[in-house]
Write a structure and sequence with these properties.
single chain, mainly alpha, 2 domains, about 0% strand
């Protein structure tokens, strides 16, 4: 019992910033139960008891159908990734949102686009400007051979 409790706590542990694409509330716990059941052959009833989740809730999650919003998010992410590759990653969330809205002919909230970008794409690249040093701005030591 003690080893299974330690295993489940290690699997479920995480930071609060961890965002997922799914809108399921305790998905980290469900995934941990599923992995431990497959890897260590622990009883599902025991794992559910340790995590404080009803066994029926676990089986409902196991057999669930993704919602329309989750499917739409997956389509948006596919388009974001292709656009990100196409423009070499220089688009921020505003340009990305404008292109996504134009592509799907729908208005998506900027917060939703930002959340999806954070989940899938790291960050946009900043365009670097080159500063050119002219001999007049250098010090005397640089000018002398």
């Amino acid at each position: 019992m003690l080893t299974s409790r330690e295993c489940i706590l290690k699997k479920v542990r995480g930071n609060r910033k961890g965002e997922t694409l799914s809108q399921v509330r305790f998905e980290a716990k469900y995934i941990a139960i599923q992995k431990l059941h497959k890897e260590k052959c622990l009883a599902i009833a025991l794992l559910c008891e340790i995590t404080g989740i009803a066994r029926s809730a676990y089986y409902k999650w196991l057999n669930r159908i993704p919602s329309a919003r989750e499917l739409q998010n997956e389509e948006i992410i596919k388009e974001m990734k292709s656009l990100h590759e196409k423009v070499s990653g220089i688009y921020g969330y505003r340009r990305m949102m404008l292109n996504i809205n134009r592509k799907f002919k729908q208005h998506f909230n900027h917060k939703r686009i930002i959340r999806l970008i954070r989940i899938t794409i790291c960050h946009s690249k900043k365009e670097k400007t080159l500063s050119i040093l002219y001999p007049t701005t250098c010090c005397r030591k640089c000018l002398e051979p």
